[in-house]
Amino acid sequence: MKDKRYLWIVAIVVIILAVGVGLVIKFALTRDQRIIKYKAGNAYLAIEILDDDLAHFEFGAGAGPDASLPLYTTPMVCKTDYAGPARLSNNGRGVLETEALKLTVEAGSLCISLTDTTKQPAVALAQLCPQDLEAQSFTLAPNDIRHVYGLGEHFPAPNTANGDWVGQRVEPGGSFGNAMLPYNGGYTGNAQFPIMYALGDAGENYALFLDHVYAQTWDLSSSPWVISTEGGTVRGYLMTGPDLPDLRSDYLELVGRPPVPPKKMFGVWVSEYGYDNWAELEDKLSTLRANHFPVDGFVMDLQWFGGVNAPSHMGNVAWDTEQFPDPAQKIASLRDEQGVGLMLIEESYVDATRPEHKTLTDLGYFPRRCEGCPPVHVFGWWGDGGMLDWTNPAAADYWHDTKRQPLVDMGVIGHWTDLGEPELYFDNAWYVGLPQLDLHSHRDIHNLYNFKWIESIYRGYMAQSVGSQSVGSQPAVGARHA
Asked: Is the pTM of this model over 0.85?
């Protein structure tokens, strides 16, 4: 009894001394404590430290997520099985620290300050603050950052190759995000990829990835920078590292590295609107070869499946054998005798006159006016009919198995996912969407639409064991916006 009382007295004295002199008592979080939450009024910040140089965060309103479960990730994120940092300390007063980074959370504002602790002395990189959680806007202090790269597919001033966004606004293409925009006499895609690489002149660098699928504006024209978006809860990742290649590698580890396409795809490919028959394609090939162009492939537009002149063949996704007879033999001949591959255009739209339209309607594979309602009707330059719901895995797999796989079996090596912004859509449609979050509107899936389309091609190749023996025979996927 005497020894036990002595131990208790010693423990109490140590705690009193630690508090009295301001010492920080550090402890490692267990798996049951993987989420650290901070509250300020009705707002919360949740942080999950995934690696020594990678922090996952979530801003929202209400009670916040279950602290024992990982934070939600959208389909943009591939890796979710991080082992955690080698060391993590939490002083209980808003400071989290690993061997590579330190996060400091302000109690009243929920601002996150990011510090790189591998530098000597440690370098304060940024401060991310929720400005208005209702309007979903944030400020980002630039500190000593002088250059920002990334943030998607945007075309600024013609005849320039400078991708630095500091001093400029990066705006979405439309109210939902991805869109085609007029540019320098033509149309180009404006598509968001919400990864920001920030670099200073003295080796300061970090990356911020918003795992958020709604339209975003990044205003880097004044200080502090302002990020504006919508859609409720906002999640993202903060990354540190010694240099830009390391940050890029960490980002690709997080979102996944694309398979290497066939070697042939790195050569010279030719396209026009469009080749009306095999004879026209072979004439172009003959002329190019005569002038010593090293042609590796042809990209074929709408004519290959019959075109869209009334009655429209949109949704056919099968060869027009009147103009392109015996396609399997011709593909083999082009490949074996000429060393030429083919990439075929593919659309999400299905004209109402096509038999496929009734089949897909009966299966429920088009977006609907509401859950359980009839499909929406889309009108366009190609005719009118339905638009495939790529967020429905059953619809995407059916399309691959019945439409795309027969072409792969013939020897087609590339797939051109056309107008995947999408170009035409029904604003108030209901999609399968993200059922885990009960998100089914067009606004919820707009910027994931082409992503899910391309994902279906990869999934189809894997399911059919195409390319499983060789990285070089993975699918090649191209996207065009006009």
From this structure: yes
